[in-house]
Amino acid sequence: MNIHRLRRLFSRASLALPLVLAGCGGPEGSVDLTGYSEIACTDQGISVSGLTVTPAPDFVQLRYFDSYKEDGQAPAPPLSLSSSGQPCATATDVPACETALENAIVTDGFHFGCQGKGGCTRSHFLVTTRGDEVKTYSTGVEVQRLLGVIDTEQEAVLKAFASSYSFLCGDKKQGAVKKNTDGSFNVIGTNGHACGPGSELTQHVLKVKGSGEVEELETRVLEEGDSVCPAGQ
């Protein structure tokens, strides 16, 4: 083999090497967020305003509860993350409706959270009032039944949340949404955490269709875990 051919082969190999190395470990950093908006939130978490539910409820509330309990103690009651509307606005027996709403609880929920002493024991559910009816929604299927056709940005976010993707309010890299020309929505959510060796916080680009189907389009690593994770996290 002559010297000129060797030089050409070496040149081609040098050009290909960065491409091979770039593919190792997958893409890192956020996707392009052009056209995305921050998700709607309250002080406690994602908002349940902006839903076009039919027939319309008087009131919608997103709650969470922790099933962990110390020996001999009852679990803590559920807490509200966000709400929309007026509780029991069209009820014929308002006191009974309000009592049922206050006591509404489920045994299982969606979007499990892992933190605190109990591990993965925090979960979420929706509760609505319509007339005298108080109803809970504790699974992704039930949430889809409530929402019907996904035709607003916040419905797409809530559907992704019920599908176990997480959001951080005020940071589009970890919580954003945009409407596509075909009527579907792209939602940016996350999974995992960056705490401890081998852990990572991943960003997920989701396509939420009108039918409620959630399709994962892309995954990126936003942050890798530190070698030491503080106690309790």
Strand share of the residues? Answer: 25-35%
Q: Which word captures the global form?
A: globular
Computed structural class:
alpha+beta
Number of domains: 2
Task: Give helix and strand order, one letter per element, not per position.
Answer: HEEEHEEEHHEEEE
Q: Into which percent range does the helicity of residues fall?
A: 10-25%
Termini separation? 61 Å
Largest sheet: 5 strands, antiparallel
Strand order within the widest sheet?
A: 1-7-8-9-10
Contiguous runs where pLDDT drops below 50 for at least 5 residues: 1-26
- Overall mean pLDDT score? 84
Radius of gyration: 23 Å
Number of helices: 4
What labels would you give this structure?
single chain, 233 residues, alpha+beta, 2 domains, 5-stranded antiparallel beta sheet, 4 helices, 10 strands, 29% strand
Overall description:
This protein has 233 residues and is of the alpha+beta class. The chain has 2 domains: 28-42 and 149-233, no CATH class; 55-147, no CATH class. 21% of the residues lie in helices and 29% in strands. Strands 1-7-8-9-10 form a 5-stranded antiparallel beta sheet, covered by helices on one side. Strand 9 and strand 10 (214-224) form a beta hairpin. The chain starts with a helix and ends in a 9-residue tail after the last strand. The relative contact order is 0.16. The model is unreliable at 1-26 (pLDDT under 50). This is Lipoprotein. It comes from Corallococcus exiguus. Residues 1-22 form the signal peptide.
